[in-house]
Amino acid sequence: xxTVDVLCSMLLLSDPAGTAVEPAFDDPPAYEQRPKxxxxxxxxxxxxxxxxxxxxxxxxxxxxxxxxxxxxxxARGRVRLYVGPDLHLSQIYGRKxxxxxxxxxxxxxxxxxxxxxxxxxxxRMPAYRDANETRPMMGGLVGGGLxxxxxxxxxxxxxxxxxxxxxxxRVAQTILVAMRLSFGP
Length: 185
Prior knowledge:
Blueprint: H1 4-13, E1 40-56, E2 59-76, E3 79-92, E4 99-110, E5 113-126, E6 134-150, E7 153-166, E8 171-183
Antiparallel strand pairs: 1-2, 1-8, 2-3, 3-4, 4-5, 5-6, 6-7, 7-8
């Protein structure tokens, strides 16, 4: 004896008019037809200028730092990843000889914000009251700020915090207002 539930289910599954469409197993599901977002890589080039103040135990020294950064960049949607060396030339006001340095940098930007981190060395950065008394320094920086983008060009405005230690153990901290223009993916 067939129960009523089994009979109803058999009637619902049957197609007396023959209008049922059998699924085609050759067609992929709709979610696979969307294009997959992949990381696209290329080179990039960044120019920048940053008003700065070098802070140390005996006071501070104002100045300006000029940046040139180049390397590899990857983009996926609105996310950008930049990795490369940042060469910088620092001019302390009231001193004739500029300081210079190089940092290995990594910058990530997402929509309208960015964050960056780096480490490296610098020469002729004062950690004393006398701006001409300098020693080689090493350390790094962190920073972040706002991003504006037009096609393959990106403008950044933010703050960087740079900490360096010289060979005698004295620390120099630098606050920079970073303004950069980057060309890449």
